[in-house]
Design goal:
This protein is an alpha/beta fold and 250 residues long. Helix content is 42%, strand content 15%. Helix 1 runs parallel beside helix 2 and helix 5 runs parallel beside helix 7. The longest helix has 21 residues. Bound molecules: 2-phosphoglycolic acid.
Length: 250
């Protein structure tokens, strides 16, 4: 049977409200037919203020959407945050958490990210948790240690919840740089993630995505990776023609 992939578009803060509107107006029809004709699951993750536009455009189509973050709290006096419950009400099927840009710029810890994981699981949103080592850790051959440290609090929270979840392996040094790990390096990271999850008695085991410089140029190489359930795509996913090329190459 043909393999099907989950293709997650992380639009980061690339588009303003008006730019999102223009993107939708320009590409809506073509994206809907791409999602109809392709076996792949296509997920748009715009910045939070633009989720409602995406919901209105793609409701009752085969295009899915999600958020790039959520609060670690349920509700209450948390200025500037938004809850998993709101995301659910906005039709989000998925939510990215723990992206390295949030770990770096917002100083998010793995413990905080684990609390967000719990919020999403409680709201039946599929979490896409990002993990991955820095260039320094990669050079030190410390990827497995980094993954273990990042995963520990997540696995503790996931233990008692049987909902589906996704882990995206995104080496920090591969994001936006054009440099990608070898298929063997990605497989090694995937093996470590599955090993740690199995040891922690996690069920179901996470689906696995790769992220970092995915493009129509790199996708054929990345497709070689065993055990890969999909891709988390940043820059390349903002260009519809490029996104289409990637989807059609899968
Ligand atoms: P990139 O970003 O595809 O632009 O490298 C991926 C990500 O940060 O999720």
């Amino acid at each position: 049977m043909e393999k099907t992939y989950t293709v997650v578009c992380n639009w980061k803060m690339y588009f303003s409200y008006n730019q999102t509107h223009t993107w939708i107006e320009t590409h809506k029809k073509d994206l809907i037919s791409l999602a109809n004709q392709s076996a792949q699951t296509i997920v748009l993750c715009p910045s939070s203020e633009n989720i409602m536009q995406i919901q209105q455009a793609f409701e009752e189509t085969h295009v899915f959407w999600g958020a790039q973050d959520c609060s670690n709290k349920n509700s209450g006096a948390y200025t500037g945050q938004y809850s998993a419950q709101s995301l659910k009400e906005l039709g989000c099927t998925y939510c990215i958490i723990g992206h390295s840009e949030r770990r770096i710029y917002q100083h998010e810890t793995s413990e905080l990210i684990a609390e967000k994981l719990e919020q999403l699981l409680n709201s039946t949103i599929i979490p896409i948790v990002c993990v991955g080592e820095t260039a320094h850790e990669h050079n030190q051959k410390a990827t497995n240690i980094t993954l273990k440290n990042q995963l520990k609090p997540l696995l503790d929270k996931k233990k008692n919840n049987k909902s589906p979840w996704i882990i995206a392996y995104e080496p920090v040094w591969a994001i936006g740089t054009g440099n990608i790990p070898t298929p063997a390096e990605i497989e090694k990271a995937f093996t470590q993630i599955i090993l740690l999850s199995t040891e922690a008695n996690i069920s179901p085991l996470p689906q696995l995505l790769y992220g970092g410089s995915v493009s129509s140029e790199t996708i054929n190489n990345l497709k070689q990776v065993n055990g890969c359930d999909g891709f988390l795509i940043g820059g390349a996913s903002t260009d519809f023609q490029e996104l289409k090329k990637i989807v059609l190459l899968l």
